[in-house]
Every structure is written in C-alpha cells, then in structure tokens.
Specification:
81% helix; TM_pro_TauE-like; transmembrane; single chain; Probable membrane transporter protein; mainly alpha; cell membrane; membrane
C-alpha cells in the first residue's frame, strides 16, 4: 500500500508538470514504475503510454477552450503518429531491456537540452504555412510515433521542439503537441495490450492520479504559467531522470 501511495503522488505531480507542456509525462511515468519494481516491457511502458494519452487528452479540454490548439496543422502529424505508434510498441518486445533504458535516457537528455536552449530564445513571430507544417508533420509524426510507442513516451518530447521550430509559440506548441500525443499514446497502448499485458489495480489508481494532476496543470498553464518558467522546470526534471536512469544502467 505504501508503494502504491508513493507512486500515486509522484505520478500526480508529474502529470501536473507535463500537462502544462502537452507532453503527457511518459518520461517520468515509465522510469518511476520501473524503479518501483514493475517490469519495464510488460507493465511500465504500456501503462506509461496509457497515462500519457489520458493526461494529454484531459489537458486538451482547457487548451481547446482557450483556442490554443492548431487542429489543422497537427492533423497530419497526429495521423501518422497514430499509425506508427503501435508498430513501435510491438517492436519493444524484441529489444533488450537494457537497450531500451539506454535509448530512453538518451532521448530524455536530448529533450532536456533542447528545451533549455529554447528557454533562452524569444517567442517566434512567424509560423510556417499550413502546407509546410503538414509535410514536416508527416515525417515527424511517423518518427515520433514509432519511438514513442517503443519507449512508452507518446513522442511529445520530439514533437514539441519541432512545432516551436515551425513558428508555434510555447503555449500553442504545448496545446498542439497534446493533440498529437493523445493519438500516438492511445494507439501505442493498444499495440501493447493486444499482446495481453495489463495490471488493472495499478492502472485504476494511476488513472485517478493523472486526472487530478492534468486538470490542475492545464488550468495553471492557461491562466498563470510563464513560458520560460515552464521550459526550465521541464528541462530540470528531465535531466534528473536521465541521470538516474544512466546510473541505473551502468551501476
């Protein structure tokens, strides 16, 4: 019971932070579940995808109300991520666990460094055309969906920086990322459960944690949060996770 309580609190806190960025929180969910003693491939990754998708789906509500989501610009990316994510999920069954952990840590470090760099940049003034966003989105969605499905991340850590490079402001990028990641996460999760893995008591407890955290995080992001503060907090959390994961692999 104590273990479940600790995991509940950590997942709720992670949901609050990551909901502000439209990223779901898989970068925290997966390692936390693994550190708590749950198997990486059969429990941590599929459950991470489910919680990721639930978090982004819930945070879409306040984002949509504030009209921050670029539905048209994110549609192609969401579609390709939807298709590629189950393929990545099924691939994870055939990749050694240590390799998955190393890949996970590398992706987390890359996302953290990219976010720290962007926190020092001014908000973009001009966005690419819809055609350009759709073409880039096709390839980014495919790659992010596959990698996200394989590692239990949803792919938001790849999508958000690319959207900002396309000209999205921080809050618009977070909202549109949430739109795309919802599709990639749920489809990746379905790819995992089709193979028969599920821990229902743990799932129910953590779903409640995500509901609480995501709603609080979404409201804070739309009403009070400053872009630079959000980026720095996100990057620091990711770097700490990456350090812990790398230590776990080499220790």
């Amino acid at each position: 019971m104590m273990l479940y309580t600790i995991v509940f609190l950590v997942i709720a806190a992670a949901s609050f932070i990551f909901a502000m960025l439209g990223l779901g929180g898989g970068m925290v969910y997966v390692p936390v579940l693994n550190w708590a003693g749950f198997d990486m491939v059969s429990v941590a990754i599929p459950l991470g995808l489910l919680l990721n998708g639930l978090n982004t789906a819930l945070v879409l509500i306040p984002f949509a109300r504030k009209k921050m989501v670029d539905w048209k610009g994110g549609a192609v990316m969401a579609g390709t991520a939807l298709i590629a994510s189950p393929l990545g999920a099924m691939t994870s069954e055939h990749v050694p666990v240590q390799t998955l952990k190393i890949l996970f840590a590398a992706m987390v470090v890359a996302a953290a460094l990219r976010t720290l760099w962007s926190s020092k940049q001014a908000e973009p003034e001009k966005m690419m055309s819809l055609k350009q966003r759709s073409i880039i989105g096709f390839f980014v969605g495919s790659f992010a969906g596959f990698i996200g499905g394989m590692l239990g991340l949803g792919g938001g850590f790849i999508i958000a920086p690319i959207l900002m490079m396309m000209g999205y402001k921080t809050k618009e990028a977070a909202a549109t990322t949430a739109f795309v990641v919802t599709f990639s996460s749920f489809s990746g999760y379905l790819g995992h459960i089709s193979q028969g893995h599920m821990n229902w008591p743990l799932t129910i407890i953590l779903v409640i944690a995500v509901i609480i955290g995501s709603q609080l995080g979404g409201r804070y992001m739309t009403q009070k949060a400053k872009s630079k503060q959000v980026k720095i907090a996100y990057a620091v959390v990711l770097l700490l996770i990456a350090i812990k994961m790398v230590y776990g692999v080499i220790a």
